[in-house]
Amino acid sequence: MSIEVTRDTFRLAQVFTISRGSRTEAKVLTVKITRDGVTGWGECVPYARYDETLESVTEEIAGLPADVSRAALQELLPAGAARNAVDCALWDLEAKAQGKRVWELLGQPKPGPEITAYTLSLDSPENMQAQAAKNAARPLLKVKLGTPDDMPRLEAVRRGAPDSTIIVDANEGWTRQVYADLAPHLVRLGVAMVEQPLPAGDDEALIGMERPVPVCADESAHDRASLPGLKGKYDIVNIKLDKTGGLTEAVAMRAAAEAEGYGIFVGCMVGSSLAMAPAVLVAQGAAFTDLDGPLLLAEDRPTPLLFDAQGVHPSEPALWG
Question: Active-site residues: which are they?
Answer without folding.
Answer: 144, 240
